[in-house]
Amino acid sequence: MKLKNLRINPLSQVQKKKNEEEPSTSEHKTSEVILPSDSNFNHIKCKAVRYQKCQKLMKEKAKAKKEAKKKRIQEGGPKQVPHTIESLREKDETTVTGDLDDEENAELKVDFEHDEFAAYYRHAYEPKVLITFSDNPTRKNRIFGRELTRIIPNSISLYRNRSGVKKMVKSAIAKNFTDIVIVNEDQCKPNGMLIIHLPDGPTAHFKLSNVKLTTDLKRNHKEISNHRPEVILNNFTTRLGCTIGRMLGALFHYEPEFKGRRVVTFHNQRDYIFFRHHRYQFDMKRGKPRLRELGPRFTLKLKSLQHGTFDSKYGEYEWLIQGKRHDMETSRRKFFL
Q: Taking the model in full, what pTM does it have?
């Protein structure tokens, strides 16, 4: 067949014109050149080279951050506040702000004047504390209770002798005790603390953890004097936190002896209450006090707060944590104390 005798399809000419007007996608793709990223080294197959590149990039970022901070300090710029769980904390309706004598806190002040600890804060009585243990306490638990008697003035440590908590409450009220502290244990380690305020309650149950005795801190119990310590209650901001702070403060005498230079601190942070025991000394050269930890140290986590004295069956709970931590909390940024 001869090519001269072939007829040209007119429709094919229209398609050619359309193709000429529209740019080809292949040419459009090749026009943009994609360069490798400076911060992503996944295209490097050698693991050693990839690790070196990542380390070099991290060092450059840290150096640039340090130079920017130095420049900001020289220029006198504002100090940056880092975002933490506490700074992003969800607002609680019961948060106490300002002084107790403010008009906003008038209702709270009336509640404090008529609660179970009002008589103590009016200096109507001196606290007398009974410290006891679970049945058959181990050596560490007994030593921990003995060290609590050195910290809490006018306190005594006694064995339980297999008596129930309700029975102990009745006998303690008859002997004019104002508080009972029961230290529980599990696997030869203290794991719980029950504080009962007498005679009308309330009762607080804490999880006890991170217990370090005086010997664990390489200290001697002879360094602890018999002077009554000062008590610092820090960061108890909510209505529930104020109740717990007042309860912990009511264990100690309301008139500290400053001559002994002893300080007991209950610091609340993210609903964990950290206990520390220090002796301070004034340094005239530096103009700042120097602290020496005496021990013991431990951490408390509130489990429940019950109205009245201990009654696990028919007691009325003011606050109770149920199940696991994440089952109760709606957010990691919500705190109760």
A: 0.77
Correct CATH for 107-328 of 3.40.30.10, 1.10.357.20, 3.30.70.100, 3.40.50.10480: 3.40.50.10480
Q: pLDDT tens-digit profile of 107-148?
A: 888 888 989 999 999 999 999 999 999 888 999 999 999 999
Average model confidence (pLDDT) across the chain: 85
Using H for helix, E for strand and C for coil, what is the string for the chain?
CCHHHCCCCHHHHHHHHHHHHCCCHHHHHHHCCCCCCCCCCCCCCCHHHHHHHHHHHHHHHHHHHHHHHHHHHHHCCCCCCCCCCCCCCCCCCCCCCCCCCCCCCHHHHHHHHCCCCHHHHCCCCCCCEEEEECCCCCHHHHHHHHHHHHHCCCEEECCCCCCCHHHHHHHHHHCCCCEEEEEEEECCEEEEEEEEECCCCCEEEEEEEEEECCCCCCCCHHHCCCCCCEEEEECCCCHHHHHHHHHHHCCCCCCCCHHHCEEEEEEEECCEEEEEEEEEEEECCCCEEEEEECCCEEEEEEEEEECCCCCCCCCCEEEECCCCHHHHCCCCCCCCC
